[in-house]
Amino acid sequence: MPSYTTPLRDLCFVYRELLDPEVIQALPGYEEVTPDLVEAILAEAGKFCEEQLLPLNRTGDEEGCRFEEGSVFTPKGFKEAFRAFTEAGWTTLHAAPEYGGQGLPKFLTMMLEEILSSANFSFGLYPGLTSGACSAINGYASEELKQRFLPKMVAGQWCGAMCLTEPHCGTDLGMLRTRAEPQANGRYLLSGSKMFITAGEHDLTENIIHLVLARTPDAPLGIRGISLFLVPKIRVSDDGSLERPNGVSCGSIEKKMGIHASSTCVINFDAAEGYLLGELNRGMEAMFVMMNSERLAVGIQGLGIGEASYQGAVAYARERLQGRSLSGAKYPDKPADPILVHPDVRRMLLTMRAYTEGNRALSGWVARELDRSLRHPDPRTKQDAADFVALMTPIVKAFMTDTGFEVANIGMQVFGGHGYIRENGMEQYVRDARIAQIYEGTNGIQALDLVGRKLPAHTGRCLRQFFHPVRAYLEEKENDVSMHHYLMPLAKAFGRLQQATAWLAQRSMANPDEAGAAACEYLRLFALVALGYLWMRMADIGRSKRDGEEALFYQAKVDTARFYFERILPQTGALFASIMSGADGMMKFNDEAF
Ligand SMILES: Cc1cc2nc3c(=O)[nH]c(=O)nc-3n(C[C@H](O)[C@H](O)[C@H](O)COP(=O)(O)OP(=O)(O)OC[C@H]3O[C@@H](n4cnc5c(N)ncnc54)[C@H](O)[C@@H]3O)c2cc1C
Fold it and tell me: Which positions are annotated as active-site residues?
């Protein structure tokens, strides 16, 4: 089984050195959030995850969840681990103090999510969905409902779940059929069936709070007739105590490729009592608070699983002896060289590393701006930060899960045949990573969100929040000759992105299929440029510190940046050519010939 150690040094590098911790500390209420405090919290989180959750990862995968007469049982050890997790306060980090939270930056929870996903992806989904549900309740519920539900959810005494999907509709939620009948007391009775509901039923908590999309009898057709409801599994009295079951039942759980320890449920609502959140028929707006938070969290799942796989692959590449180095034996005292010496194995490991550390930097950047968008006192700065987060959310979700899966797959390859064998743990990473490309809106849908909504929004206003800092940095480094081997390729890739953006804006107005056809490649091009920018910055920091005490760490930053610029960033050329080829070739293909 591969081991995992929290990459504390790299997490702190992103927080302290790449992103300027003073930006967070300058936000009202975060003055005390010093880099030392952040490091101490992350170290504790890492210790907890390594000691309590990592040992349950493999056993949880083998045992899976069990369904018996309407109840779902999580694998052995999960209940105790969940109790320890909540008792240690890990569910309370970002939540508002008035509901029992610690009011710490979102940044910290996003870093915790990475560690959780590395140590035990399935386990992380239970508190992850609860935290997303809390954000939506906090944003849209009345104060009375917040007081009744949030403290117990924040404390981890109750979990949350997100009920959108129905058997006949996933992406196209406008078709959903679950009904909500208004009652004289202002509440609603919900009836219908949802499927694929993560953590919809389990034995970790005494109650589960479902956030459910449904339509009232006279609601308009389509997406404009959807409302959001809070539906507890067990009814809750005004004083917060549990009453009787609420017409919410689990019909079955899915047998699936990965995340076996996470329950994926059919949830039936049979005249279940619910409360409207936000306004009638504007449920998607309210649900998007939860979905946006979840989309970033899902992107981070890709990062977490990539890190775990990378660590497993490096350890194996050091110890597995096979063949001799092409340029002569490197370890002549051994019967063969470790596979680490082979160029192809190094290519695999460096690809894994370049994506993983690059993704950590990217998610850190987005997390910092998310905190600014929530707390900055200046409305303009707050809006700019919100625009940046809106733009980058589909990129984080899709790119970090695509590369998370690629990295997990490469990690398995490094193990050769042993990677394919269950007990070595590497194939579990591949199976677990795969779902992140699908749920929370498939990656294809993320790409459409980027080109169809985020680019044109407010006549390109969101885009400026990315283009400006990249352009400014390139200009700042223009006369720094020592950085030219980064500057030139990045400027070229950035130019491709700008050109593709203008081309898309123009072409998709005449024919929306152009945007649809280019969307996935455009998203990847965008993400590769974003990572290029971050890798150039990281190389810059590495260069200035590589002669000091931590020479190995900083030199590795410079060398990984070099690999990224030589081997990965050039992919932007092929993506650009593909985007510019247009939609015609695909759209003219005869439907019957498929
Ligand atoms: C393990 C697991 C956990 C899940 N957890 C939850 C949960 O907690 N809550 C919840 O509500 N749902 C959950 N889901 C559901 C998940 O979000 C959906 O499966 C996903 O959004 C895709 O919907 P679908 O499966 O109906 O696919 P479809 O919508 O049928 O899509 C099929 C394919 O067509 C593509 N496609 C569809 N429409 C378009 C379009 N307009 N343009 C371009 N391409 C399109 C899609 O990208 C996809 O490739 C979960 C699913 C799984 C498997």
Answer: 440
> Residue 441 Cα, ligand 1 centroid: separation in angstroms?
6
Atom of ligand 1 nearest to the CA of 199: 8
Q: Is residue 594 part of a domain?
A: no
Among 166, 229, 232, smallest CA distance to 196 is for 166
pLDDT, mean of residues 234-242: 93
Pairing of strands 207-214, 158-163: parallel
What CATH number did the domain enclosing 166 receive?
Answer: 2.40.110.20
d(CA 524, CA 389): 17
Average pLDDT, the chain: 96
Instruction: Give 3's DSSP letter.
Output: -
Q: Which atom of ligand 1 is nearest to the CA of 213?
A: 11
DSSP letters, 42-80, are: HHHHHHHIIIIITHHHHHHHHH--EEETTEEEPPTTHHH
Residue closest via CA to ligand 1's atom 37 equals 171
* Residue 266: its H or E element: strand 264-277
- Nearest-CA residue for atom 21 of ligand 1: 441
Number of domains in the chain: 3
Residue 485 belongs to what domain range?
442-589
Task: Answer yes or no: do 16 and 114 share one domain.
Answer: yes
51 and 180 housed in the same domain: no
- Mapped onto helix, strand or coil, the DSSP state of residue 378 is coil
In the chain, the amino acid numbered 465 is Q
DSSP 466-510: HHHHHHHHHHHTTT-GGGHHHHHHHHHHHHHHHHHHHHHHHHHHH
* Segment 351-409, tens digit of pLDDT: 999 999 999 999 999 999 999 999 999 999 999 999 999 999 999 999 999 999 999 99
Residue 208: what are its φ and ψ, rounded to 5°? -130, 130
Q: Looking at the structure, do residues 104 and 198 belong to the same domain, yes or no?
A: no
Per-residue pLDDT of 439-452, as tens digits, reads 999 999 999 999 99
| Cβ contact 110:296 at 8 Å | yes
Decide the pairing of beta strands 71-73 and 248-253.
unpaired
Spatial separation of the C-alpha atoms in residues 575 and 189, rounded to whole Å:
50
473 CA → ligand 1 middle, Å: 38
Q: Which residue's alpha carbon is at the smallest distance from atom 34 of ligand 1?
A: 171
Do residue 454 and residue 581 come from a single domain? Answer: yes
Q: Which amino acid residue places its CA nearest to atom 14 of ligand 1?
A: 196
Q: Give the ligand 1 atom nearest the CA of 444.
A: 47
Among the candidates 234, 260, 281, a domain finishes at 281
| CA distance linking residue 535 with residue 355, whole number of Å | 10
Q: How far is CA 216 from CA 187, 279, 441, 448, 573, in A?
A: 12, 12, 24, 29, 50
Distance 256 CA to ligand 1 centre (A): 15
- Cα separation, 83 vs 204, whole angstroms: 8
Q: Cβ of 485: how many Cβ atoms within 10 Å?
A: 15
What single letter denotes the amino acid at residue 50? E
Q: Which amino acid is it at 225?
A: G
